[in-house]
Amino acid sequence: MRRGPWLHRRTLFGGAALALAALPPLAGGVARAQQAAAPAFAYGADISSVTEQEAAGLAFRNSRNKPTDLYDLVQAKGINAVRLRVWVNPEKPWSDRRDVIIKAKRARDHGMRIMIDFHYSDNWADPGKQFKPAAWNTLDVAGLTQAVADHTRGTLAALKANGIDVTWVQVGNEITNGLLWPDGKTDRFDTIARFTNAGYEAVKAVYPKAQVILHIDNGWDTAKALWWFDAFTKNQGKLDAIGLSYYPEFTPSKKWREESPKVSATMAALVARFAKPVLMVEVGYRFDEPREARAMLRDIIARNQALGSMGGGVFYWEPGTIPSWSGYRLGATDTRDQLTTAMDAFRH
After folding, report:
1. Most buried among 84, 141, 224, 323, by the most CB within 10 A?
2. Who contacts 198 (Cβ-Cβ below 8 Å, separation ≥6)?
3. Which domains does the chain have, with CATH numbers?
4. What's the sign of the alpha-carbon dihedral 217, 218, 220, 221?
5. Which pTM value belongs to this model?
6. Coil, strand or helix: which one is 168?
């Protein structure tokens, strides 16, 4: 998803597409899907801004208006996994290696599984911007490949040295239009694969069992998703799982009841063609429409779970962003600094 200015700076499966598209967008279908879900299903949240908000003096509150650790709040809603972004050399000390270790320790101590999301940039990387870290600006493709490997391996080795296990690693964030521009744009899929393969091998060197995820945006766009992963795999790109973003606000109709069936079609088509699990690694909805957000989340969770073992989980993107601090309107915290009922969709 393109980040707003507030941040200073988205034959088993032969008939799956039709079956998934027909899923009812109501809670009744969710209960059945959850009963059949594998124990490993991730009910997740990206909470990467938690330390920055705490440092700003903000407090998350429970239903009794008592200041409460965000980890406790999301866990009480059913969250069993967190996603944490990593920047290379950010201007401020957020989402750098030290900060990520602090947040990962807290997740570990809450018994949550961890997804590490490498942006390979000093700031936000998404389809609209994939800028090299300043320290990498003069590197050629070979140098960039080595830098990706070193940064990935070094960060993960530091996490492991601190007693932290990692379940998933994204090598790039929403790299629909490539990464490390201009060298890694989509007119050079061979270079994209070279960069991400360096990350893949670095992950396996530290956490051999971790799933490496390749992540693009607009999960409703089936044609683009197939085009992207076709090109990536034809260039010998390596991956263990596919990650998608889905924000109804940024879809053609802005109506999730029209767009979510398209996400089902995309997931089913990807599984059928590439035989890889699919995770919704970023999902979000308007914080001021919490009941509608809850319905959308229940529906997309059911759709992912309908893939069976190929449905890996759903992660809400930054439910803890306090609107008065961020201006971000697709989180799940209200003007009282409390998590909204939208997050009840993750109860299981």
Report:
1. 84
2. 145, 146, 148, 149, 152
3. 5-346 (3.20.20.80)
4. negative
5. 0.90
6. strand
